[in-house]
Amino acid sequence: IFVKFTLKTDKFSKETNGEKVKLVAWTTTPWTIPANFALVVNENFVYSLVKYKNEYLVVAKDRLEYTFGTEEYEVVSEFTGKDFYGLEYEPAYDYFKETATKNDWHVYMSEEVVMDEGTGVLHVAPGFGEVDFKMGKDWGLSDTVHIDEVGNMKNDPWKGVYIREASPLVAKDLEEKGLLLRSEVYLHRLPFYRGKNPLIYMTQDSYFIDIQKIKQKMLDLAPEVNWIPKTFEKRFNNVLETSPDWSVSRSRYWATIMPIWVNEKGEQIIVGSFDEMMEYTDQIEKKVNENGKTEYFLDGEKLTLHRDMCDKIVLKKDGIEYHRIPEVLDCWMDSGSVPFAEHHYPFENKEAFEEAFPADFIVEYTGQIRAWFNVLFRLSVILFDKIPYKNVICHGVMFGTDGRKMSKSFHNYPDPKETLEKFGGEALRLYFMSTPVMAGGDINWSDDLLKDQIKDVLLPIWNTYRYLTMYSNIHNWTPTTTEFTSNADLDKWIESYMKNVAIEYSKALENYDIPSSVKLIQPCVDNISKWWIRRSRNRFASGDENALQTLYATMVLFVKTFAPQMPFLTEEIYQNLVVNTGVSNGKESVHLEDYPVFSEEEVDHELLEKMELVREISSNGLKAREDSGRNLRQPLVEAYIGSDDELVKNIVQEELNVKEVKYSKEPISGDDYVTFGEYEKYVTLNIAINEELEAEGLRNDFLRKYRDLRKKSGLKLEDKISLKISFEDDAQEKALREYIEKSKEELSVKEVSFGEKGENSKEIVLNEKKIYIEIG
Questions:
Q1: Which of 240, 246, 292, 590 could lock onto 574 through a cystine, CB 3.0 to 4.6 A?
Q2: What does each C-alpha distance from 339 to 296, 702, 759 come to in angstroms?
Q3: What is the distance between the alpha carbons of residues 562 and 583, in angstroms, rounded to a whole number?
Q4: More reliable by pLDDT, 464 or 203
Q5: Do 312 and 352 touch, CB atoms closer than 8 A?
Q6: Long-range residue pairs from 83-86, CB within 8 A, at least 24 positions apart, any chain
């Protein structure tokens, strides 16, 4: 509504021919107009004095169109906000004239007046609203309220009417008084309780803790806390710097009581224990239970610190009765008391509390910076003059699939139990810890990202474990130690790599840096499964014990390292690889193992750097092959690289499937040469192919497609089969027949025959020519 307030001044009589001037204020809460005690303008704004229907009204110049719409009006003159400062006006209602202060019903100035809404004139009811209350305190205004504790009006003619129902009645009354300019329906935000009931801002008497007395001490101690992410340290400091005094009393029923009893004169008794309470009453009975614990009873029931019992207790001092005040404690005081309350300190467990305080670590979401983290800090400084926690992980918010806060009423998130049953706790945990949430960011729930943890981490490492057990069974190999024993370059590399990962992972966890720790897991899985195993396949096929022992030691070290964040999968693998094999240095559980600790001297960083160079060179070589149209199964005669290290050259030779790797300071150019990369990481491939190389490429293509066929047929590596092969192309038969006959072991074949296509033959295609294979 738009309300007219008449100024008690003749300051503008020249412009109005002696007519009164009215300031037009705007409010979305008509029921607060009876409690108006000030009007506010902005000293920097221009205000227009307009003539509208024989009245002289004042509205901010930039809000004229909004205020009057299409109605006609005449701008008589213009003024600044300063011209109205200090002027007195007539209140719309005179309920509080007898108790009003000399500062009530005047015009004030404030930057809080903005041009985004309203008329440029702010209506102030200090009893309602945080900003209004502060203005009232600053200017010495009354803060009288005209509603009761349930929101009903207390003054006639609306006594007993709820404020929402009173608003249209107030508007109608203002119209009858000639004080209503107009009204409209306006959509705006309001605070609501969790039960979807609107809240009312209203001043109430309260008990406060004087935070200002400890504010500097809190700011002095704050740097002792390690915040993760670090950016939240500044936000917490801002909370401390701007902290108002703490209102600790609440007008509700269920909460911890305020232990204050008063008599009719207002004198108080404040008690700090049941024993102290018993000094003033005989209503309480004290007993020791069978466990030696002291308990207190009221009327035969165990006494608790709640209103339903404590309000019955009457204290007496010098023959005068004291009754408990109705207020209870802010529940955040309970939350902030957790560190000592859980030990029943200071009444017992003194040593247990002092050993555990301050906490090494605490975690909650960003909203607790102003809430739980804050009250814990306040009470700790007040009571113990120290910080309550050393390290804080502050995570973000996981929103629903639609971007809104997760809510049962929105149905915007999957059922937690079904999610756990479908994906498992391991995947869910890794998903949470790998998202920006652990760095204080907010994200929307995503099943796809959850599935990625299974696809990229859990399945590969489980398949790696199965790969080890499969070849161990094939070659009847049993481990005797969990240590690395091989001196082969590739094995020494994975040993150094795994030890370095354990060092970096431990550092991250020691620093409570969860995102950095989780980022190590997937690359580690990839390095084991996609690099080391791939480079070692021939060794596993031949039963090389160094390869088997190295993979075994790698897997044991993997599960020991990542057990804190993958407790279930690592335990399963550990039980099967260590406990069930009876390895002498194993423990009953991976979670009973000492965490792996290595020194930097145990890591061959030079070897790690060489292998990183190998991988970058190999990656460039694969891109050079792609540019030239030469697939990896087609061997090439030679490659040139910018490193002369023998280890690097040997591995690159195998990775790029070339007959020879040569060192050249500069890339080679020519019609048969393709280069990718630069400096020491470049690769130049000679892509010319002779008849011998082409035949070898054909054999490689056949081997890959044959193995795919075996896999699709459900055969295991150790399954020996009979083959009947028929070629569509004579040239292919000539190139492949001798190779197949001599490679029965590699092909896991017990016998092979060549002839016509069989009834159950399956086909593979090489260079657009078909080969028919019947498995028997």
A1: 590
A2: 23, 68, 77
A3: 20
A4: 464
A5: no
A6: 83/11, 83/47, 84/7, 84/23, 84/41, 84/47, 84/58, 85/41, 85/43, 85/109
Strand order in the sheet with 638-641: 661-663, 638-641, 683-686, 673-676
Residue with tokens 């792996």: 596
- Please report which residue ranges of 24-105 form alpha helices under DSSP H: 64-68
pLDDT, mean of residues 78-86: 95
The mean predicted confidence, pLDDT, of the chain is 93
Rounded to an integer, what distance in angstroms lies between the CA atom of residue 557 and that of residue 575?
13
Burial class for 330, CB neighbours closer than 10 Å (0-12, 13-18, 19+): buried
- 212-391 CATH, one of 3.20.20.70, 3.40.50.620, 3.30.70.1560, 2.40.33.20: 3.40.50.620
Residue 595 pLDDT: 94
Residue range 693-775, CATH number: 3.30.2320
Question: Which tokens sit at 396?
Answer: 């973000």
Task: Give the whole-angstrom CA distance, residue 138 versus residue 129.
Answer: 14
Q: Other C-beta atoms within 10 Å of 689: how many?
A: 16
- Is the pLDDT at 735 greater than 90? The verdict is no
In this structure, the strands spanning 638-641 and 661-663 are: parallel
- Judge: domain 447-603, CATH 3.90.1230.10: no
Torsion of CA 91, 92, 96, 102, to 10 degrees: -10
Tell me the pLDDT tens digit for each residue of 45-75.
Answer: 999 999 999 999 999 999 999 999 889 999 9
How many Cβ atoms from other residues are within 10 Å of residue 240's Cβ? 20
The rounded distance, in Å, linking the Cα atoms of 376 and 395 is 18
* pLDDT reading at 369 higher than 90: yes
Query: What is the C-alpha R_g of the chain?
Result: 41
CA atoms of 110 and 114, how far apart (whole Å):
9
In angstroms, the CA 112 to CA 247 distance is 25
pLDDT digits (tens, 9 = 90+) for 306-335: 999 999 999 999 999 999 999 999 999 999
The least confident of 148-162, 206-220, 360-374, 511-525 is: 148-162
Whether the CB-CB separation of 682 and 667 falls below 8 Å is answered with yes
The CA-based dihedral angle spanning residues 652, 657, 659, 662, taken in that order and rounded to the nearest 10 degrees: -30
**CATH class as words, domain 2-182:** alpha beta
- Token pair listed for 311: 């309000």
Task: Inform me whether the pLDDT recorded for 755 exceeds 90.
Answer: no
Distance CA 60, CA 79 (A): 9
Three-class SS state of 673: strand
Instruction: Pick the closest to residue 328 from 274, 267, 260 (CA basis).
Output: 260
Residue 775 gets the label, from left (phi > 0), alpha (psi -120 to 50) or beta, of beta
Asked, as a colleague might, if the bond just before 358 is cis with ω within 30 of 0, I would say yes
Where is 410: in which H helix or E strand? none
In the chain, domain spans: 2-182, 212-391, 447-603, 607-689, 693-775
| Angle, CA 772 vertex, CA 766 and CA 776 arms, to 5° | 130
The string of pLDDT tens digits covering residues 289-301 is 988 889 999 999 9
Asked if 721 and 715 count as a contact pair (C-beta separation under 8 A), the reply is yes
Q: Is the peptide bond before 157 cis (omega within 30 degrees of 0)?
A: yes
Residue 485 · residue 549 · CB < 8 Å: yes
